[in-house]
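The passage that follows is intended for readers who have already worked through the single-chain material. We present the inputs for a multi-component assembly, then the predicted structure in tokenized form, and finally a short commentary. You are encouraged to pause after the input and sketch how you expect the pieces to fit together before reading on.
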Amino acid sequence: QKEVEQNSGPLSVPEGAIASLNCTYSDRGSQSFFWYRQYSGKSPELIMFIYSNGDKEDGRFTAQLNKASQYVSLLIRDSQPSDSATYLCAVDRGSTLGRLYFGRGTQLTVWP
Amino acid sequence: GAVVSQHPSRVICKSGTSVKIECRSLDFQATTMFWYRQFPKQSLMLMATSNEGSKATYEQGVEKDKFLINHASLTLSTLTVTSAHPEDSSFYICSAEKTSGGAHEQFFGPGTRLTVL
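Having made your guess, compare it with the prediction:
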């Protein structure tokens, strides 16, 4: 079983819609969860992190965490064409602070 | 902000040569930096954890004698790919860990695309 799994996509949504990205993880000891955005040929950039169960909102982005279900998601409201990228879910390795497992990413396309 | 730079951004070399990649945290000190490799359409794979003033910790399957890491200061870590071969061609990305208020965030450099001929 892979440590971090993401819905494979690609995901395509119209401009203005809500994009929903999902991620599950296997290490129950994980405490920190991150969403990164990666444009083609570029390195990842941090969008959000979440540590506690529930929702965390930052502008158009909302991260949701459910540790019991080992599930973390990212919602993007009012999606824009500029949001088109690959979204990587990253989870810390519970036993080793700082080291992250990355999912393979979900490619999102927002069409005008 | 948290800015991390990498140099060079792109390098092409002949098989058998060595290539050094620098990773710098520009506006914060990073005790810990990480080196990743990413093949096309694949996720980031952690190669090693670089700790200032001590030896790097390598992930299973990563040859420490081939991928030399030196973390000489709180703002600089280097990765040297020794005797590079075509299968080492990849996108190498470093990240620097910023610790603030108990939170540990990783900020990524722009990456180095290595092509070995």
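Commentary: Chain B touches chain A at residues 32, 34, 42-46, 49, 93, 97, 103-111, 113 (CB under 8 Å). Chain B is about 0% helix and 55% strand. How closely did your sketch match?
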